[in-house]
Design a protein that fits this description.
- By secondary structure, the protein is α/β, with parallel strands linked by helices.
- 43% of the residues lie in helices and 15% in strands.
- It contains 16 helices and 15 strands.
- The strands form four sheets. The chain has an eight-stranded parallel β-barrel with strand order 2-3-4-5-6-8-11-12, surrounded by five helices. Strands 7-9-10 form a three-stranded mixed β-sheet, covered by helices on one side.
- β11, α15 and β12 form a beta-alpha-beta unit.
- α9 runs antiparallel to α10.
- Bound molecules: 5-hydroxymethyl-3,4-dihydroxypiperidine.
- The site of 5-hydroxymethyl-3,4-dihydroxypiperidine (IFM) has 8 residues, from loops.
Amino acid sequence: MPLLAALAACTRDTPVPEPPRRFPEGFVWGSATSAYQVEGAAREDGRGPSIWDTFSGTPGKTRNGETGLIAADHYHRYAEDVELMASLGLRSYRFSIAWPRIQPTGAGPANPKGLDFYKRLVEALRAKDIAPVATLFHWDLPQALQDAGGWEARDTAARFADYATIMYEALGDMVPTFLTLNEPKTVVQVGYLWGAHAPGFRSPQKAWVAAHHLMLAHGMAVQALRATGKPAKVGPALNLAPVYPASDTDAARAAAHLRGGIENRFWLDAVLRGSYPSDVLSSIGVEVPVRPGDMQTIASPVDLLGIQYYNPLFVTDSGPDSIVTKLPTSQADWQQIHPDGLYDILTWVKREYGDIPLVITENGIPVVEASDDKERIEFLRGHFIAAHRALEAGVRLTGYHVWSLLDNFEWAEGYSQRWGLVYVDYPTQRRIPKASAHWYAEVIRTNEVR
Ligand code: IFM
């Protein structure tokens, strides 16, 4: 075969390997969990009941009636878990604080045993040079506050600011980053509109009132940190989803734009612009109870934005609620897999909202395989590459937290989905790193994705 023909055949048949993508020096690789999903010890050391104890304890609300009563027993095994994180080379660990461990009824003085647990966790992390990132609210509202109206009650935002102040005073010199709320959108959609999460309502009226009080709670908690004078940084953790028209029509494009408002602009505009988007307000048909000064509070300047990315949405020309599946999904049927969506959402946030520092606070996939979880490796590889492309495009992305460190309680799905880099054998609580954990450790060690 002539040389040129041979070369052409060779290029056709052998895929050219992509060069490794090197992340910037100091890029922070981490992993994340949340209190109710991993801690267990739900009735220990003075912890009060949360809405998730109530919800999961109600027959029919979670798969097989499973609850977070024991979960991954992280409350007792945190020291072993920090060793595990260190062995993987994690530089950051995002956890959440169980509000009812600190204030069992959501008000009043702090429970010393609750504070002590998080102090010990933070000290253990710092001893291993792992940066703690503390989320103040990851859905486990004290039940007593729910009984007083939950997020529908404006007073819950003030209670949250008090609780946040307790945590800033206790940990504000040791924890460099606090996140106020985890995914307020999920609370509103799944907890108040669809009824599949605590508190289990199906009410647009309740949902949008709760949405505003959640955002108010965020803003008040940001102000509370500044009032303490502590050096920690603060921001929200928002789950964002790029929304694409399912077909090439004006109607589908318009529906996708409005859906994007519900998914992304409502939360981002509030935090970064001090307003709710008018197209969303007029589409929801609910009077949002905004009082003078609220939007300024909500837009109190933040230091960073936590972004959680799992999936895109495709919307048809039938309207913003007409969401269809166009891509392969994971075991979680809502999760269409689309790594480029991460690039799209990160670059869109930069274009629309400017150069605020961004950190991926969650991204991951449930995989059935207990140890050889190749699908997770491919998922993460694709998403890390998308994040790298966003960095090349000038996005100020500072770190990445894989969801999740451990298999854990996946809310209404109970223990049926395994999201961890590390397998948890629930009967023995043994931790066994999966193939993805070893692969991720190598990414962290080399600061490269291949
Ligand atoms: O497990 C959840 C987490 O609590 C919030 N973000 C999405 C994850 C996967 O569903």
